[in-house]
Predict the structure.
Amino acid sequence: MNPMREIRVEKVTANMGVGEGGEKLQNLSGLLGKISGRKAVNTIARIRNPVFKIQKGDPIGTKVTMRGKGGEEFLKKALEAVDKKISSRAFDKEGNFSFGVKEYIDFPGVKYDPKIGIVGFDVCVTLKRRGSRVTRRRRSQHAIGRRHRVTKEDGLTFAKDILGVEIV
């Protein structure tokens, strides 16, 4: 197989939505950092939502982005937490997929913390092929040809064959 056609995991992003700032956000940020082994970053509201009493610029969640070996190890543990089953609707047209872990105590090696309670988090996996950097680089930026892009079918076969996921 051509090494340029090989599909890889570009990044794995774990996200917890809190809806409010304060001590609860700090606790969940620490939990996400402990689970992933990386420093969690707070996310802020982009728009105002009066129904939930959220103002633009308010901290409302926390996230961690992992690349390389750390991201792949985290992905394997997260897939074990959902019994390696993902819906086919979780894949987008670029082959990326997302799934939710309902309770953080399902994640291997994590124990219940009464200070936090029971919360879940989302895991988003971004796939790419070699050479995709040409779309984002500063100098001599180019588009990727249609045949070289990752499609939904490519993402499904990658998840089945490489990650051992059962598509439901």
